[in-house]
Design goal:
Radius of gyration: 26 Å
Mean pLDDT: 88
Helix content: 10-25%
Number of helices: 5
Order of helices and strands: HEEEEEEHEEEEEEEHHH
Strand content: 15-25%
Shape: elongated
Low-confidence stretches: none
Length: 312
């Protein structure tokens, strides 16, 4: 699943029928620029009704604060507003005016959900690296011998197996009590461990044959529409449905905070129609669905890891 797909799934949850006023970027924009030219969908540059100083506009994954108007179609803006990343934008890109949930808001909620899933929720990606056994070495750097890729986002080791030569070619498991993984305080102190981890092996394997180290890997953040939740964030495909749902819950929870502000009334609905807590309570069904999906993924991962632990 791409980040763009996850954003769209989340948006369908939090605002399935709401329409956000939009305009179109008139010309290419270079990251960091403080001037933006607007036009409407019919390429009428004079029709920019709704763009006023003080509003926030969203282009792709970036937010802009509109400061002043230089003309009916050109406005002075503050780029990278509210912590969004400054970026280039192509002419013709949609500009959303005061969006309730911008793509940047949804991206932030998705990354928060990825952190939460591999944190308190205990989910992870099952990954492995390959090393070559050397009988004179006891401490191994956790870098894949085939790709020279160092271990990343390490949580916990699950299993260590070694390959036997022809004609057997079996992978035999080394008992968990015979190996341990220790982090290095600094990779510059000992350059033999550039990954920042060392695997201490107190057992033997087959000289010259590869060892497979299976471990739990935490999820990482995504940043671009084309980023894959599988290849960039390390998320198992079976957990794709969890992330947009968790992001939607976070966004809905934040709406109650805005609704309760005393300085202004951003929500025109009367309290009698939508009483305090109604926005948060509307996410209760999403929470139950989210908990069910998380529990299902936890059970799947438990079955996978138990098959290896049985050999400890």
């Amino acid at each position: 699943m791409l980040l763009s797909d996850a954003i769209n799934q989340c948006r369908r949850r939090v605002m399935p029928t709401q329409q956000v006023p939009s305009l179109v970027l008139q010309s290419d924009y270079t990251a960091g620029g403080t001037s933006i030219s607007f036009t409407d969908n019919s390429n009428n540059a004079s029709n920019t009704t709704g763009v006023q100083p003080g509003i926030v506009v969203a282009i792709d994954l970036e937010l802009f604060y509109v400061q002043t108007s230089a003309s009916s179609s050109q406005f002075t803006v503050t780029p990278g507003y509210l912590g969004s990343t400054e970026a280039n934008h192509t002419a013709g890109a949609l500009i959303y005016l005061n969006p309730r949930f911008s793509d940047f808001d949804i991206l932030t909620a998705i990354n928060n959900e990825l952190d939460d899933l591999s944190g308190d929720k205990g989910l992870f990606n099952l990954a492995e690296i390959e090393m070559t056994f050397n009988p004179v070495i006891q401490a191994y750097d956790l870098t894949d011998v085939n790709t020279s890729t160092a271990i990343s986002n390490y949580i916990e080791g699950i299993a260590l197996r070694y390959k036997t030569p022809l004609p057997d070619r079996k992978y035999r498991t080394i008992p968990r009590s015979r190996w341990e993984v220790l982090p290095m305080a600094s990779t510059t102190v000992d350059t033999n461990f550039p990954s920042g981890y060392q695997l201490i092996l107190n057992d033997s394997a087959w000289p010259g044959q590869n060892m497979l180290f299976l471990f739990k890997q935490a999820f990482t953040h995504v940043a671009n529409y084309a980023d894959s939740l599988q290849t960039v964030a390390n998320l198992p495909a079976t957990a794709n449905r969890i992330v947009p749902l968790g992001a939607a819950i976070e966004l809905m929870s934040g709406r109650e905070v805005e609704r309760n502000q005393l300085q202004s009334q951003p929500d025109p609905r009367l309290a009698a129609e939508v009483p305090p807590g109604a926005v948060t309570n509307s996410a209760a069904g999403l929470m139950r669905e989210h908990m069910s999906f998380v529990a299902s993924e936890q059970a799947r991962l438990k079955r996978l890891t138990n098959s290896f632990r049985s050999n400890w």
